[in-house]
């Protein structure tokens, strides 16, 4: 690993007053190989980011400001690790154009920083073409307003993509008499069930079944702390991945 | 225990050519405290039941014949352990009238002989009034035609009964945006989710959640063999329970 | 329910500076049917308890002071709900003698206030005599110093008691070649396995197995909040249970 | 895919009188893209294998004969898919030498044909370097004589290999007071727990934990049928993998 790809030591957090941002600032301060040089919130100027000497930005802000933040970083040669949502195809494409002119700078856009969740979805997709049946159960606290969860939808899409590419037929199902909703909803042909239960945080199971066997991939997220190892992994690796990477799995070594 | 309530030694199986009946005949033959004196199938005469000297009948036949079988047994002073479906309120009431004239004879009508399943449903119902949230997930092989399963419906009804009696409010649920079916179906106000997966047999989970904790009651039925301990328990205890008992839980010691 | 057995409205917490005590004080303040009249810590005088007008004491202190606290309460006609450890046979016996002279006062000594955990252990014990095999897996965070957990030991003892009373033979086990420790430890003849894993809090599974079926009773404690419903249930019911009760299960309706 | 690498259509089974072999013969007969041309048992001559015209051998025999069977196959240009145990380093090395002279012939030696089990172990190994903690629980029927299972030992070794290569420290464990065996056994520094329970077949869970999250990879093998998709996958792919492959994962597309 050459000098210019060395681990970013000087890190700035944007959105440091939010819950995720505050947690990230703490995690960076506690990491022995990083130094938190700026923790900026709503109202702070991006000039403070430039003057802080940050080598890497962690953006945990809001959809309205994330694009401007990241463009500013790239234009100043600062790598960016981004957990903010709102990056649609248009924004991603514009960012790629910008990065073409800054070939040494890396940006990671990660909708999910929980390593276990990212791994579970990737494993589920890879495994799914070897099984006749696959269904997803996601379980969350009862204050969640949407069902199914965004992670379950993405997992179902990944699975459907792999199964379609391998020409696996749909999961068998002889149901002829159903009380409405019993068999869950369908996302790209994959059944998804959403449980809401007091006491839970965020949990997901992918069930894969074949003759005489079952493979279950379960992820439990008990706490916001579960996102921090993923944020740190992003910061540690972004300089070695110039250009745009979407999804933390792009930084994970899962080749088997 | 007095002599007339001693364990029935001489047992007859009706429906012995069916899968459950054949399994039951084998289990009775293997039990050291029982003797199989008749294994009758379609076309055999009920007179053979009387002449076999059976003290207890195990009826695993079809809805069309079970009522006549059981009446014949009761009229001949033979206890009956019944796994056949089709016993609606009218049949049960007629049977009770008949039993009133045969006060020493016992009949057990059991829709489910899997001890673990019966215990799990009873525990779930008892526990459910202490938790804010409860949902049911049942998982079966993909050749099953109905969803949810009969066991899940009965479990939901038991739970709803206990919660209503204790005036527990409905499980909280903030869902405002739902892909149709994601949140399962509702049975007496209890959410039930049905998974169908190759490789599975018959499985059920009741999830109970309160602040910071979850209680999970899961039953797995891997094999028809799981019904046999319940059948034998029925045969061993029917003489000590004269009159009509519906549900194997009536014979189980679950007082806590 | 008569007037003198009505729900205690005025509640004092001892040990209110500890983590459990502080949580309990908050839970009592939030309960619509209770009023927190005193929150006392180390160094506060018990006279403050008397002068507060408290009808019920919640003791979450230390083994060194709990006995004196509870005696003071009983002598002043104040019911007590006690989560502090250290109540050995001698202390319990002395407390019973004292209570004999105060027949309207109730004391609950509860080693575990998590409703789900108490229910799971009680259910496991009751179910265990119907299954050939039973084993316990407990899973905790890796900072725990003892293995197995106290809850697992108590659960194993309850199970062993029920199985011995019903003359159930030991769980079958054909192991002849074992890497030391693979089969766990034994508590009263019941196998117990202890998992330690970062991210976990306190979890336990009792696995019960018979021919072709498995019953699993799992409890997850994610958070100290899980003890508060049990504390409130104790406060609400202690006046209706004069004398000494050991274990929250004494207040639960689990008759099946 | 060129003609000479096309799917072997003509398949012979050796060990066809054993339980696995009989099941494999049935599975091959049922596969639309294969034809069973020989089903040979103890005492049959290997010459029948040659004269059957088989393009692929499935060897499910005994350690004493498998080496000779496979050498015969290779020398006759017949691919081999081998589930028999007993292939130590010496035998494997001799087989590789032989295959060097038969560059178009493929041999797969697979200690485990359950796809889900192979995938779960591979996923667990890959994921393990991203988590602080990892432990294995394997659960089997109580007639098993060894603990832990061979699959658990191999899984632990794979995990230890990945973690050591990535210089991950040992899983944290503050246990200072242990009832002997509670924390399981250690295989290459990985804790393994073995449960034995009536009703179970063969099951394994790998638990991975980090701050605030858990990843669980569970495989359930309910039935010998679970090995057949793996056998067929081996037969379908062996011609495309000339030389020696150890482990079914060599044929699986798990690149992520």
What would your notes on this structure say?
Chains A, B, C, D: Keywords: Amino-acid biosynthesis, Cytoplasm, Diaminopimelate biosynthesis, Lysine biosynthesis, NAD, NADP, Oxidoreductase. Four copies of one chain form a homotetramer. Chain A folds into two domains: 3-113 and 225-251, Rossmann fold; 115-222, Dihydrodipicolinate Reductase, domain 2, CATH 3.30.360.10. The first copy, chain A, contains seven helices and 13 strands. Chain A has helices at residues 19-30, 46-51, 63-75, 89-100, 115-127, 150-165, 228-237; strands at 10-14, 35-40, 56-59, 79-82, 106-109, 133-140, 146-147, 177-178, 185-187, 190-196, 202-210, 213-221, 243-246. In chain A, the strands form two sheets. Chain A has a six-stranded parallel beta sheet with strand order 2-1-3-4-5-13, sandwiched between helices. In chain A, helix 1 (19-30) crosses helix 7 (228-237). Chain A starts with 9 loop residues before the first strand and ends in a 10-residue tail after the last strand. Chains in contact: A-B, A-C, A-D, B-C, B-D, C-D. At the A-B interface, strand 6, strand 7, strand 8, strand 9 and strand 10 of A face strand 6, strand 7, strand 8, strand 9 and strand 10 of B.
Provide the domain count of chain A. 2
The CATH top-level class label of the largest domain in chain A = Alpha Beta
How is the main sheet of chain A built? 6 strands, parallel
CATH structural architecture of the largest domain in chain A: 3-Layer(aba) Sandwich
Q: Name the strands of the widest sheet of chain A in spatial order.
A: 2-1-3-4-5-13
The averaged pLDDT of chain A comes out at 94
Intertermini distance of chain A = 23 Å
**Largest two-chain interface:** A-B, 49 and 49 residues
Helix content of chain A: 25-40%
Low-confidence stretches of chain A: 1-5
For the secondary structure, the number of strands of chain A is 13
* Succession of helices and strands of chain A: EHEHEHEHEHEEHEEEEEHE
Radius of gyration of chain A: 20 Å
The CATH topology of the largest domain in chain A turns out to be Rossmann fold
Beta-sheet strand percentage of chain A?
Answer: 25-35%
Structural class of the helix and strand makeup of chain A?
Answer: alpha/beta
Based on the structure, what is the oligomeric state of the protein chains? homotetramer
Q: How does the overall form of chain A come out from the CA principal axes?
A: elongated
CATH superfamily of the largest domain in chain A: NAD(P)-binding Rossmann-like Domain
């Amino acid at each position: 690993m050459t000098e210019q790809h060395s681990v970013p030591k000087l890190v700035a957090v944007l959105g440091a007053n939010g819950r995720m941002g505050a947690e990230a600032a703490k995690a960076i301060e506690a990491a022995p190989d990083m130094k938190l040089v700026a923790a900026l919130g709503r109202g702070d100027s991006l000039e403070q980011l430039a003057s802080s000497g940050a080598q890497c930005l962690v953006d945990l802000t809001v959809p309205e400001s994330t694009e401007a933040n990241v463009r500013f970083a790239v234009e100043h040669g600062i790598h960016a690790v981004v957990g903010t949502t709102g990056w649609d195809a248009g924004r991603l494409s514009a960012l790629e154009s910008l990065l073409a002119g800054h070939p040494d700078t890396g940006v990671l856009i990660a909708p999910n920083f929980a390593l276990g969740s990212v791994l579970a979805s990737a494993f589920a997709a890879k495994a799914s073409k070897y099984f006749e049946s696959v269904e997803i159960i996601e379980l969350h606290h009862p204050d969640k307003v949407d069902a199914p969860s965004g992670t379950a939808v993405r997992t179902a899409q990944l699975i459907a993509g792999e199964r379609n590419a391998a020409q696996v037929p749909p999961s068998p199902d002889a149901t002829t008499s159903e009380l409405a909703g019993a068999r869950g909803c369908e996302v790209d042909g994959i059944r998804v069930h959403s449980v809401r239960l007091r006491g839970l945080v965020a949990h997901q199971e992918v069930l894969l079944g074949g003759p005489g066997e079952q493979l279950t991939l379960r992820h439990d997220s008990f706490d916001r702390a579960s996102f921090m190892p993923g944020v740190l992994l992003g910061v540690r690796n972004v300089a070695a991945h110039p250009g745009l990477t979407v999804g933390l799995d792009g930084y994970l070594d899962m080749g088997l």
